[in-house]
Amino acid sequence: MTSATDPQQARPAPAGTITPRLIATDLDGTLLHDDKSVSDRTVAALAAAERAGIEVFFVTGRPARWMDVVSDHVHGHGLAICANGAAVVDLHAGGELVQVRPLAREDALAVVLALRAAAPGTSFAVELSTGIHYEPEYPPFHLDPGATVAVAEELLHEAAPGSGAPVIKLLAHHAELTPDDFLALARATADERASITRSSPTALLEISGYGVSKASTLAQCCAERGISPAEVVAFGDMPNDVEMLSWAGTSYAMGNAHPAVVAAASGRTVANNDDGVAVVIERILAGL
Predict the structure, then answer these.
(1) 82 sits in which H/E element
(2) Residue 4: what pLDDT?
(3) Is-above-0.85 flag for pTM?
(4) Which ranges constitute the DSSP H helices of 102-162?
(5) Alpha helices, DSSP H only, in the chain?
(6) Which terminus of the chain has a lower count of CB atoms within 10 Å, N or C?
């Protein structure tokens, strides 16, 4: 991946006459530093944007239970888009689910069977609105010790623990394929049953309901507010941000972004560790 660490290397998006009304930013690799902290400069920039009347939406692949990292920095509406668009949560209410766009269990099962055939050795986890469950071979990233451990076919069965809860997303991991090769294979194999993307540096896929993405849910939230794509400024760094950056009127790839993100964005800012989001917000506010 390319990197831009000098603020002078940032490439501004094309100048326009429309005043931004909403900032949509990814978290990991974008707003957050690599140590998962939010810098004082970024906290100040977010607060200043809200004071200027620009709404801020955190738009992330994280589940609602992992949003405590930014819960103290939410102003105004308090809403965040989680799980790559599968959930809208109220961070003022402790991450309460406001909207869920689930992955149908039959579609999740079809994807599991397709990937088992196309990529032997794939292991799965099932993210429900109530928590995560996973297969014995699934890597121990951030797993819940109280989760059910079983093969995905059992976890997706209607009689499985938590079966009354919606499936937020299916996770698929492969120990040998490269991340981009795994993503391409999965999309070629099962893309008609679900939306498939990735945000991890490992071969870990995130599988949502068909048509569910950061972009589609953000578009809904903006439509409810009478905000057009042209009035949105978006930030991201990984393939799960591509649709959102393409949809927004103005978008920035981070200096540490995946090449597909750089190609999709209309502008470029510096890396997450150099407060690339804050750099752009400060520039926007200076021009108001």
Answers:
(1) strand 79-82
(2) 42
(3) yes
(4) 105-118, 152-155
(5) 40-51, 105-118, 152-155, 179-190, 214-224, 242-247, 259-264, 276-286
(6) C
Read off the amino acid at residue 80: A
**Tokens 């093969």, residue?**
151
Rounded to a whole number of angstroms, the distance between the first and last alpha carbons of the chain is 33
CA-closest candidate to residue 246, choices 36, 48, 11, 24? 24
Please determine, for residue 14, whether its predicted confidence score (pLDDT) is greater than 90: no
Cβ proximity of 280 and 252 under 8 Å: yes
DSSP string for residues in 189-206: HHTTTEEEEE-SSSSEEE
CB 279 within 8 A of CB 6: no
Query: Residue 74's closest CA among 100, 38, 110?
Result: 38
Burial class for 159, CB neighbours closer than 10 Å (0-12, 13-18, 19+): exposed
Lowest mean pLDDT across 14-18, 65-69, 117-121: 14-18
Cα–Cα distance between 95 and 91 in angstroms, integer? 5
Angle between helices 105-118 and 179-190 (to 10 degrees): 120
